[in-house]
Write a structure and sequence with these properties.
By secondary structure, the protein is mainly alpha-helical. The protein contains 6 helices and 4 strands.
Length: 154
């Protein structure tokens, strides 16, 4: 099931943004996360969850990141290791920007089949509440953009 939101995209245009529940969906952040990023708490939590949900062979951090909204050395290292795996040294700046290649790759890997390929992890079995919290964090992270769109429409 998808829930639609109106959000201001990077190009400044307000248009629908879909978030999917369950297996896969849109991972969205409002500002950069990582080295020299804005590192807003909700955005950092979204990226920490997204990296933890990546299959092991696709660059999931081991041990998993603590989802605390703090972009410390382990989160930055996790971002950079993921980027190295997928983009090589040229694309490994240690920062996730909205609507750029790293967030696109995270969204690609969250497309539903990755969970089946990785198998059911014990953390996923225990993590249904965590997943619900992830969707809530994504929605909360989009609220400033939505409010901006409403103001622009008025």
């Amino acid at each position: 099931m998808s829930t639609g939101f109106i959000a201001r995209h990077v190009d400044g245009v307000c248009r629908p943004l879909l978030l999917s529940g369950g297996g896969g969906g849109t991972i969205a952040i409002t500002a950069s996360v990582g080295i020299n990023g804005a590192n807003q708490k909700n955005d950092v939590m979204v990226i920490q969850r997204a990296l933890n949900d990546v299959p092991p062979d696709q660059g999931r951090p081991e041990p998993p990141l603590v989802v605390d909204g703090i972009c410390g050395p382990k989160t930055k290292k996790g971002i950079q290791a993921f980027q190295l795996k997928h983009f090589g040294w040229k694309g490994a700046d240690g920062r996730v920007d909205p609507d750029k290649q790293t967030i696109a790759k995270l969204n690609e890997l969250s497309g539903g089949s990755s969970a089946a390929a990785a198998g059911v992890r014990e953390a996923e079995v225990r993590g249904e509440h965590r997943e619900a919290g992830g969707r809530i964090a994504r929605v909360v992270g989009l609220l400033p953009q939505s409010l901006s769109c409403v103001k622009a429409a008025q």
